[in-house]
Q: What sequence folds into this?
């Protein structure tokens, strides 16, 4: 049986496209943590800060909270099977959210932040570290949160605020 070169080339190209299609069809986005990471949460009353060391230490850059009367700072450490995979910090001084991703595992986590003040809840958005190939990725956001407001941090495994991991509450500082 004789086939033309055109028929053989067409068959090879079709086969290659089918194989590539199968490869892309089986490629999936990064898997969610399963089970969810464990979370250790630490609070500091910033009226008696500056604070650092002890439970605020970690293998990457430690944590330092500045003095801010009436504030409650929060640090959440995320661990997966013994690996320190990230941390979330709320600093009342400057009303800053810090989100660190410390493991290049193709997965990330997302932090929703909002505050309650004057009888209303104010959603400030959802943030994550950028996910580069750097050893430590971080995002720092500076907000304008009223003094004494309750600040809610909620950590999710999914970008659309899905797959809840943990939550914590801090307080904006400078309460008279």
A:
């Amino acid at each position: 049986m004789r086939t033309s070169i055109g028929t053989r080339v067409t068959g090879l190209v079709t086969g290659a496209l089918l194989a590539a299609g199968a490869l892309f069809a089986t490629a999936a986005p990064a898997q969610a943590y399963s089970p969810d990471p464990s979370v250790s949460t630490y609070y500091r009353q910033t009226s008696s800060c500056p604070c650092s060391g002890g439970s605020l230490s970690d293998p990457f850059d430690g944590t330092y909270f500045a003095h801010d009367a009436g504030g409650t700072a929060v640090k959440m450490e995320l661990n997966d099977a013994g690996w320190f995979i990230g941390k979330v910090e709320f600093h009342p001084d400057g009303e800053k959210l810090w989100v660190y991703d410390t493991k290049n595992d193709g997965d990330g986590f997302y932090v929703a932040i909002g505050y309650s003040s004057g009888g209303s809840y104010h959603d400030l958005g959802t943030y994550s570290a950028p996910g580069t190939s750097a050893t430590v990725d971080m995002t720092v956001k500076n907000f304008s949160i009223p003094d004494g407001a309750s600040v809610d941090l909620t950590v999710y495994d999914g970008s659309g605020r899905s797959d809840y991991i943990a939550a914590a509450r801090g307080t904006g500082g400078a309460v008279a």
